[in-house]
Structures are given as C-alpha cells and as structure tokens.
Amino acid sequence: MPKAARATLRLEDETGQAVEEIARQERRSKSAILRELLEEAIRLRRCPGILFVAGPIGRRPVIAGTGLEVWEVIAAYRECGEHFEKLHQVYDWLTPTQLRSALAYYRCYPTEIDEEIRRQEALTEEEAQRRYPHLFLPPAAPRSRRKRWDR
Q1: Which of 22, 69, 91, 137 has its CA 20 to 30 A from that of 15?
Q2: What distance in Å separates the CA atoms of residue 55 and residue 47, rounded to the nearest whole number?
Q3: Do 21 and 63 share a domain, yes or no?
Q4: Quick one: 60 and 114 in the same domain?
Q5: Same domain, 116 and 61
Q6: Does 111 lie in the same domain as 58?
Q7: Under a CB-based contact definition with an 8 Å cutoff, are residues 35 and 9 in contact?
Q8: Whether residues 36 and 98 fall in one domain
C-alpha cells in the first residue's frame, strides 16, 4: 500500500454529520470513510460515466445506468480480440460512450480490474453458490402425484 499523506480537512456541519452516520452504519472510522469518498470522487472525475455501487465484497465500478461492472466489459473486450465493434455487438444495448467509459476506467486502473477478472475466473460454481446463494435457484421440491382438483 502506498504511503498515505496526512491532511487536515474542515467540513460543513451537514457533511460532517453525514460522514459520521456512514462511519457508524458501516462500523468504520471517519478517516476510512473520508479516504474512500475522496478516492471515489477523483475516479468519478477521471472517468465520467462510471459510478460505484456497494456489494458483498466492497464498492465496485459499474457503467452508469446499468448494473454492469467494468471488469465484465473488459473481460468481454478481451474475448472479442480487443475489437471495439465486436464488443458493441456483444453489448448492443449499451451506447458506444458507455463502453468507452469502461475502457477508459480500465486504462486508468488496470491493476484493479485485472485482479477482479482473475478473482472471478478462479471462482468455482460451488464457491459462487456459497458466497452468493441469492443468485441461485433453490432445489426443486418434489412434486405431489395428486392433481390439483383431487385435493
């Protein structure tokens, strides 16, 4: 982890209260919350069209207006031989601007996205079911042999 610079920051009362509330809800320090918010704000400015959403493993970058994570687009881009037109055919419901936003984010933060792609590729189906049970259908219940009208 890079060495952290120290900074003093004065916040408006309302902003300070919001930071304290987030810190309380997430059981994290105000410093950690402020650091995360500031880092996200910088990324948002560098990469318009990308937002951050909370998930089970922390906040992650997604294409604005979608739930599509940047790593998913980059993985598909690689599978398309890094041809933008082929990528647009795969994600034909996205605008070229949305796809370019994901590519721009990757150019700025390749290590983060490459690590997420590796993590996702290493995930087995059993591990995915354990971590994200809400994404899988429960086993089908045995069907009754009686017909509805016989009850």
Answers
A1: 69
A2: 20
A3: no
A4: yes
A5: yes
A6: yes
A7: no
A8: no
Residue with tokens 């796809």: 99
How far from chain centre, in Å, is Cα 130? 19
Question: Residue 115 belongs to a domain with what CATH number?
Answer: 1.10.10.10
C-beta separation of 113 from 78 below 8 A: no
At 68, the amino acid letter reads: L
In a domain, 134, yes or no: no
Q: Give the C-alpha separation, 77 to 68, whole Å.
A: 14
Domain that holds residue 100: 49-123
Q: How far apart are CA 112 and CA 127, in angstroms?
A: 21
Predicted TM-score (pTM) above 0.90: no
Place of tokens 């987030």: 22
Do 62 and 103 belong together in one domain?
yes
Q: What is the CA radius of gyration of the chain?
A: 21
* Tokens 């809800």 belong to residue: 25
CB distance 84 to 76 below 8 Å: no
Q: How many other C-beta atoms are found inside a 10 Å radius of the C-beta of residue 114?
A: 13
